[in-house]
Design a protein that fits this description.
It is a single chain. The protein is α/β, with parallel strands linked by helices. Helices cover 38% and strands 20% of the residues. The protein has 11 helices and 15 strands. It has a 7-stranded mixed beta sheet with strand order 3-2-1-4-5-14-15, with helices on both faces. Bound molecules: 6-O-phosphono-beta-D-fructofuranose (F6P). 6-O-phosphono-beta-D-fructofuranose (F6P) binds next to strand 12. The site of 6-O-phosphono-beta-D-fructofuranose (F6P) has 11 residues, from strand 12.
């Protein structure tokens, strides 16, 4: 059995733990592993190399992915599927183990519908993938953001400032909500709940009236501001670029600066913005993500062994289960608004 492993989409702490687990478990069964470079791109270009126990030694704690990654969509590349098929045959790949988020697994699902043997492993710092309670990478991103919020507290307090912290998450507010709750944010703004600028300013003003001299606002990059023009619609997105990737996603970011200006104008308090950006995706994974990634990797090889293709390993409660790839893609897993209500108790 030859397993082709690829990592697609944005990189994420814990990817190497998954790759290591797949290769180690596969080795125990006498299977061979091939590393496909840079996501689906490597399968189209035929950049594929053997992965043995030496290649995965000493990588558990390392961030990023030893296989490289890309946001390539084979269905958007000229003759992409044909090239992919030729390389699957050329390299004798029996099954593809795709490690990725919605986009990478969306391709995996399409391929499995066309008869290719594929299994999926859920990855994303955004935690927005359906059919799994958590994805690996999320816990690390939340811890990085929480530590940043802790640090911003001391400087905000010393300078009597409001600090707006912009975090990633795309169209789901999981990172903002978890990091904001863990870091004791005074306001948390998420895409699932378009917000009114005056309401935010009033929360901060009230907090300062009761004697506090600083505030921390955590805003998700995809959060939406209600404006007069959009109030009846879905809010408006502040996007830093109209550039789209091959899966049609615009590059988000920039709401933190806009928000900081508006808060300062409305409250009169000096306000600064900090955009955490890719820091949230870099560096070593937390213990939680190493363990989750390892469990996913081992379970994926068992899926392959039982011939359960077209499926993804997933976390349900504390159990690793498997679900159809179809259930994971198509719709995003948005924030549980009951959890947001818990966070609201601490606003202001
Ligand atoms: O999906 C992960 C993620 O980090 C999002 O939170 C963010 O919007 C996006 O990727 C950034 O993508 P890129 O690394 O291509 O700038």
């Amino acid at each position: 059995m030859n397993i082709g492993i690829l990592t697609g989409g944005g990189d994420c702490p814990g990817l190497n733990a998954v790759i290591r687990a797949v290769v180690r478990k596969a080795f125990n069964y006498g299977y061979t592993c091939l590393g496909i470079r840079n996501g689906w791109k490597g399968l189209i270009d035929g950049v594929i190399e053997p992965l043995d126990l030496n290649s995965i030694s000493g990588i558990l704690h390392r961030g990023g992915t030893i296989l490289g990654t890309s946001r390539t969509n084979p269905f958007k590349v000229d003759n992409g599927e044909e090239k992919l098929k030729q390389n699957i045959e050329k390299f004798n790949i029996d099954v593809i183990c795709a490690i990725g988020g919605e986009d990478t697994l969306g391709v995996a699902y399409k391929l499995s519908e066309k008869g290719y043997k594929v299994v999926g492993i859920p990855k994303t710092i955004d935690n927005d993938l359906n059919a799994t309670d958590f994805t690996f990478g999320f816990d690390t991103a939340v811890n990085i953001a929480m530590e940043a919020i802790d640090r911003l507290h001391t400087t905000a307090e010393s300078h009597n400032r409001v600090i707006v912290v912009e975090v990633m998450g795309r169209h789901a507010g999981w990172i903002a909500l978890y990091a904001g709750l863990a870091g004791g944010a005074d306001v948390i703004l998420i895409p699932e709940k378009p917000f009114d600028l005056d309401e935010v300013a009033n929360i901060i003003k009230k907090r300062h009236e009761r004697g506090k001299n600083f505030s921390i606002v955590v805003v998700s990059e995809g959060a939406k501001i209600k404006t007069e023009e959009t109030v009846d619609k879905d809010g408006s997105l502040i996007i830093s670029s109209l550039k789209k990737d091959e899966f049609g996603h615009v590059r988000l970011g920039g709401i933190g600066n806009v928000l900081a200006d508006e808060i300062e104008k409305r409250t009169g308090f000096e306000t600064r913005a900090t955009i955490l950006g890719h820091i949230q995706r870099g560096g070593s994974p937390t213990a939680y993500d190493r363990v989750l990634g390892t469990r996913f990797g081992v379970a994926a090889v068992d899926l392959i062994r039982s011939g359960k293709f077209g499926r993804m390993v997933a976390l349900k409660g504390n159990e690793i289960v498997d679900v159809p790839l179809k259930d994971a893609v198509g719709e995003l897993k948005l924030v549980d608004l009951k959890l947001f209500e818990v966070a609201e108790v601490f606003f202001g």
